[in-house]
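From the shared-data thread, chain only:
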Amino acid sequence: MNNLLDKILHPADLRKLNPAQLPQLAKELREFIIDIVSTKEGHLGASLGVVELTIALHYLFDTPNDLLVWDVGHQAYGHKILTGRKENFHTNRQFGGIAGFPTRNESNFDAFGVGHSSTSISAALGMAIASNLKGETEKHHIAVIGDASIASGMAFEALNHAGVSSANLLIILNDNAIGIDPAVGALKEYLTKVKTDKRLAAQNNIIKALNFDYSGPIDGHDLPKILEELKRLKTVKGPKFLHVITTKGKGLQKAEEDQVTYHAPGKFDKISGERIKKEKSLYTKYQDVFGQTIVELADKNDKIVGITPAMLTGSSLKLMLEKHPKRTFDVGIAEQHAVTLAAGIATQGLIPFCNIYSTFLQRAYDQVIHDVALQNLPVIFCLDRAGLVGEDGATHHGVFDLAYLRLIPNLIVFAPRNEIELRNILYTAQLGLQNPIAIRYPRGIGNIIDWKQPFKSIEIGKGICLKEGNKTAILSIGTIAKNVSDALDLIENSNEFAHYDMRFVKPLDKNLLHNIFDKHQTIITIEDGTVKGGFGSAILEFSAENNYQNKIKTLGIPDHFIEHGSVTKLQLMLGLNPINLANTFKISS
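Structure, as tokens:
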């Protein structure tokens, strides 16, 4: 049998096939995704689940003239392969290669850049409104959104607007009952009922009540049925909603059976699906340091509550769910709600640990300011994935948190340099802080094997000296301290260099800073966050306020978005690796 996928370079080639050939193309597309991801890694299950839907959309709609928006983008691998990126798909998520998510500067088939969830309906509605204003009334606008993403507040806001518009908008709900972790909430339970109760789908329907032309639910792996329904919907004007039932990981048994693990399984055997075991590290991931520590604390303190917006596994808060299910809450993809929920819990004397990835907290910025900090409520924010996160790229690098948090009154901002520091600040935070605190830490493993030391309280606002020196002081914040120490080890005579871990970006240890500025001619700051407005800016402000004349150099993430690639390669590119840092220190001193 001829390989159909070999002949598909763009959707125009796809449209030359007859409908009877499409199931064979679907089989080949799944095999292609599995073949590449098994060795190159990436997001697997979501893309396998929408193969038939992806083919049908590009087959029936005139993309890129018709605008197709994928929510989050985990499921867009098939889309990328069919839209001119098949030959370099093996570079997916690698430094210098194609991005793991749709991005407008990569292809005109990527109508909207994504990476965070629940944006697709708003974006597609905006496109549809613009088309109406330009008189392009025949153009189609499609948003593909998952059942976990549609439960987000932003998606509801867009549905509310779209339902009273005349926009030529098609929303496709890819319902597989899972995001990264299993979907949660009342809407998920409603969708589950709709799948089995046709009367509920036909009559008492939430989407119909919002003025959408609702159809479904239909089998998302039945290509003839999908084609038939999409053809019909192309003739319907106004807001439309198609409910499609799919299986995440479809076509790879292991991925269907363990959908959480196979969301992004790492390397695996493409035939059996068995994951290829990595050599077990002696070190612990920071997320597991958090997860194990909060369980240990919650065992002794029944006031502790854990909250996460759909990141139970990623944050390791699942460990607390297993031990203390009544005090652990996965609120779904709802960062704003998670923050204000934590604020409400704090008003009643409980101790909420709100675990949110650094870039996801950006989505709840007003709630951090208005609902937590303004009321000075002692919410403990645990910001996983701070700094450079690697292959997920610009949408996920947690490089803005120090800058956007340090300007908020009442908020303490802390960055541990290692696992022991993380453990101790978690302990300190639940002892009765009178202020909210943000604790930011990176993705990946640490560098201390025996990190489960007896708890020690950390004095708020207190930095420490890691190495004495007589000329140049290097001030670091967070785990980038390890790179600084390694860099100083590379310098033959490093006696002139002092190294301080400031630990707190807010409040700054001003007593220590006065001592540092008095003793050293040159000050070098280093962070794995943006240099604009971040830790280095705080030190510059301190210097200006106190009329110091020391030479100051700030190192960190430059003022542009950083692409995807391994953290090691990105640090090398940015000059934050030990060898480049050693050279910078010598030149700057």
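The first strand starts at residue 67 and ends at 70.
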